[in-house]
Write a structure and sequence with these properties.
alpha/beta, Rossmann fold, 10-stranded mixed β-sheet, 4-stranded antiparallel β-sheet, 29% helix, globular
Length: 547
């Protein structure tokens, strides 16, 4: 497989490993209807640090990632600011990457690489990542994604018809498209993507003239009608079938149970089984003849061309922002219809979606809107990350708070969405230096962190964390314990002693115990006998436990 070479690659290839973990701190006065938020999070801070901070709770848990990074056109004013210990890269810091910068591709690739590696760690095994890009960096991004995600996990390069009004000034080409590059974490785990659902023509009927008459009961909301909404009176129909109950149709669905008598090829039990398997029942005419539409027969894979008529264009994206703010705060925001289409390809109404280049907040807006359209099933949640992007020249600039958050808040209010979010800022680093300075995480934050260090996975049963018993969680044959207090003076006096060890052994019989504590007063023979592994904090904690 071809690999990509660029300045600084050997320096930043594993940079994500050296980035310290940080806490995520709630900013309660910036929450909006958090009780309705369903886990929606807006995170303010550098997205490299924020992505690392998400690992203890979300590693392998994100279903869909959509990002719209800088296209590196030279007009975006983005700045390379990663804290990498290298004279070469330190020379890049704080400088705007312009069109005449001979190292602009190198800088862009150095910026993207550690972020893509963390995004891969966060992605579920059957997860998908979509990246909007154009010609400036597509060729580099494709090879970089092959390296990080594996070329065998390439899904598609979707071509988005982003405008019908290409620039007329060029004598060589008139660009009216952009790309959406799609990869999976493990393509073998993906059985299908849902692009469209076929129409109702040619569907098999549930009736047959050679069958004996029988009656089927159709439960409330289980039938899709292609006839006008309204009231239909029971009786013999022109199809010769008999409607045994009045039927009220609202928004193409029956609002109550009804019975239909006719020459049915299905029995009641078989009807229930098919409905449970996702089969849709359709009635096309007022003759009330039922047809079946099996899910597997009706799903079409997505087309590689994403036309404006289906997913919108940049003008629509700009109009959506203008409707909220009164003017376009971003030049080229993505339309929510594009993002809704992409998150719908997986067909999971409970997906966790992440956008680490949140910008104007289009992704969270799209997720909330899609949930609103699917009033009963829509249960997606969204995590977005956006920097402040302040500077010496503009110290009050805060894109995350004043644009990303504000756009989502106004959209919820303006369109009456039953939703909300919590707002977080990247907090203190969890590293020895900061801890010894007294910048300490909470017990729960630290517990999730050490569990991830020990397992490489998020702590699914975080509600079972018990500081009194020092218990964090279990993973296979291991139990994890943390002896810790969020106070430096108290922390200096804590140690794993015999009494604590006996309590822990009794708490987790038949398990190997991994105990994190500032010090240990137990001898090695006792610890070996009781199957105890000790990890000192804060001194040797910060390397992943691999055994």
């Amino acid at each position: 497989m071809p690999t990509l070479q660029f300045k600084g690659k050997n320096i930043i290839w594993n940079h994500h490993l050296s980035v310290p973990y940080h806490t995520l701190e709630e900013v309660e006065n910036l929450h909006f209807q958090p009780e309705k938020g369903n886990g929606n999070l807006i995170i303010e801070g550098d997205n490299l640090i924020a992505l690392k901070a998400l690992l203890p709770e979300y590693a392998g848990k994100i279903d869909i990632i959509y990002i719209d990074p800088p296209y590196n056109t030279g007009k975006e004013g983005w700045v390379y600011n990663d804290n990498v210990n290298s004279p070469l890269i330190n020379n890049w810091l704080g400088k705007i990457v312009g069109s005449d910068d001979l190292t602009k591709h190198d800088k862009w690739l150095c910026m993207m690489t550690p972020r893509l590696k963390l995004l891969r760690d966060l992605l579920a095994e059957d997860g998908l990542i979509f990246i909007s890009i154009d010609d400036y960096e597509y060729h580099n991004l494709r090879i970089l994604m092959d390296e990080i995600f594996g070329e065998q996990n390439f899904i598609e390069n979707y071509i988005w018809e982003s405008t019908f009004r290409p620039d007329n000034s060029s004598k060589i080409e008139r660009e009216n498209g952009q790309y959406v590059l799609a990869f999976s974490k493990n393509k073998k785990k993906i059985t299908q993507l849902i692009g469209d659902v076929s129409g109702s023509d040619g569907l098999p009927s549930l009736t047959k003239n050679t069958m004996n008459e029988s009656t089927l009961t159709f439960e409330k909301g289980k039938v899709t009608f292609f006839i006008e909404d309204g009231h239909y009176t029971k009786g013999v129909l022109k199809s010769k079938y008999e409607l045994l109950d009045d039927v009220e149709i609202v928004d193409g669905k029956n609002v109550s149970d009804f019975r239909l008598k006719g020459r049915m090829i299905w029995g009641q039990d078989y009807l229930k089984k098919e409905l449970d398997n996702g089969t849709e029942i359709i009635i096309k005419t007022d003759g009330f003849i039922p047809y079946s539409k099996k899910l597997e027969d009706s799903i079409l894979a997505p087309n590689t061309i994403l036309p404006k008529s289906k997913v919108g264009d940049v003008l629509q994206g700009r109009a959506e922002v203008t409707q909220i703010f009164g003017f376009a705060k971003f030049e080229h925001p993505k339309p929510t219809s594009l993002i809704k289409y992409l998150i719908g390809l997986k067909g999971d109404a409970s997906s966790v979606i992440l956008d680490s280049f949140a910008g104007s907040g289009s992704t969270m807006h799209a997720v909330i809107d899609q949930n609103n359209l699917e009033t009963e099933s829509g249960n997606r949640r969204c995590i977005t990350i956006q920097m402040k992007e302040d500077s010496e020249a503009d110290p009050d600039k805060n894109i995350c708070q004043n644009i990303t958050r504000e756009r989502v808040k106004i959209a919820i209010e303006k369109y009456g969405y039953n939703s909300g979010f919590k707002y977080f800022k990247v907090g203190t680093a969890i590293d020895p230096e900061k801890m010894l300075e007294g910048q300490l995480p909470t017990y729960e934050q630290f517990a999730k962190y050490i569990y991830y260090l020990g397992t490489g996975e998020h702590l699914a049963d975080a509600h079972n964390i018990n500081a009194e018993k020092h218990f964090v969680g279990t993973h296979g044959a291991k139990s994890f314990y943390l002896i810790y207090e969020q106070d430096l003076e108290s922390l200096t006096r804590l140690a794993l002693n015999l009494s604590m060890a006996e309590d822990i052994v009794n708490h987790s019989p038949n398990k190997r115990r991994l105990i994190y504590a500032p010090a240990c007063f137990l001898d090695s023979d006792y610890m070996e006998e009781k199957q105890i592994e000790f990890v000192s904090i804060p001194y040797n904690l910060f390397e992943r436990q691999t055994n």
